[in-house]
Amino acid sequence: MGKGGQSEGNGAQCEENMAAWLLGVNTLKIQPFKLPSLGPNDVRVAMKAVGICGSDVHYLKSMSCGDYYVKEPMVIGHECAGIIKEVGSKVKSLAPGDKVALEPGIACWRCKPCKEGRYNLCDEMKFFATPPIHGSLANQIVHPADLCFKLPEGMSLEEGAMCEPLSVGVYACQRANASPKTSVLIMGAGPIGLVTMLAARAFGVSKIVVADVDEVRLAIAKDLGATAVIKSSQNMEDVGKELELIKKALGGAEADVTFDCVGFGKTMTTALKATSRGGKVCLVGMGHSDMTVPLTPAAGREVDIVGIFRYKNTWPLCIDFITSGKIDVKPLITHRFGFSQKEIEEAFATSARGGSAIKVMFNL
């Protein structure tokens, strides 16, 4: 695997490197994957923990996710952590044996967004398991050293892999300016809704209401620290009733900040109407590309709408939140699998079913 997950070259390796390849709809196969030569600023990492993301499942089910389409075989996976096996000649910050969490995107650092510090918006981003870039569900990968963050003693590799989904929640809270002064509503109690809730708590938010259609997910949210949970529906006609329940759960007030971690017309409509005058709605989920929502009334109440795309500069903060005990990601890891043909198929089927499965993790 080359930098950014590109397959290139015939780099030397002691034993054959194997990876999970997406070959077609619902078709994954473990097969050889050659490593490139190690660059002077690169490291070779033995993958030890890789989580399954919703985007991975989208690619498996339809060979697409949003505007990205898999047109040729691709290695899957991007939530990962491992152990350094080899370092490039110019790498001074890491050494063989170090445990690291990997940030999966390599920016160009030449375009305007990169120069302005918003490298997550780079048009030339090479991101694990985003076509045509290969991912990290492999025995070993090669990656830039500056995107590999050393894990402190006591932090597990699974927790390191969880820095990737947690980064989405952390960045969402940064974009929405979540703080101890804000009350928060979260639409959606899936993996991203839950990490956003954990991040909001770490930023000092004490009043957090979570709404979802799934009672199992709501129970998990409550166990993880939600102030209150609201059972919602998929019917637009129920918005009014649900707004009353949300307001009651927030002590008779509207939410200062709402995170839509679903991205459907109904959830965004609820988010806009449930947010206070001068508040913020952060669109995190990308369920629907197009939706009809009440923007004009929201504008009349000066409700700001912000979006997020992945994250930037979040790994050090995620590591600090986890090691300090402000965030415990371990309860989110509900299922674990090894790295065999049978197990990768079972793992993706488990993740796709949802329900009680929050984060499905591979232990390599």
Polypeptide structure, described:
The protein is α/β, with parallel strands linked by helices and 364 residues long. The chain contains 11 helices and 20 strands. The strands form 5 sheets. Strands 3, 7, 8, 11, 12, 19 and 20 form a 7-stranded mixed β-sheet that branches. Helix 9 links the parallel strand 17 (275-283) and strand 18. Helix 7 crosses helix 8 (265-274).
Brief descriptors of the model:
364 residues, alpha/beta, Quinone Oxidoreductase, Chain A, domain 1, 2 domains, 28% helix, zinc, ER, NAD, metal-binding
Secondary structure: elements and pairs:
Blueprint: E1 18-24, E2 27-32, E3 42-51, H1 54-62, E4 64-65, E5 68-69, E6 74-75, E7 79-87, E8 99-102, E9 105-106, H2 112-115, E10 126-127, E11 140-144, E12 148-150, H3 157-161, H4 163-176, E13 184-187, H5 191-202, E14 208-212, H6 215-223, E15 228-231, H7 239-249, E16 255-260, H8 265-274, E17 275-283, H9 295-300, E18 304-307, H10 315-323, E19 333-337, H11 341-353, E20 359-363
Parallel strand pairs: 13-14, 13-16, 14-15, 16-17, 17-18, 19-20
Antiparallel strand pairs: 1-2, 1-6, 3-7, 3-11, 3-20, 4-5, 7-8, 8-12, 9-10
Helix pairs in contact: 4-5, 4-10, 7-8
Keywords: Metal-binding, NAD, Oxidoreductase, Zinc
Pfam families: ADH_N, ADH_zinc_N
Cofactor: Zn(2+)
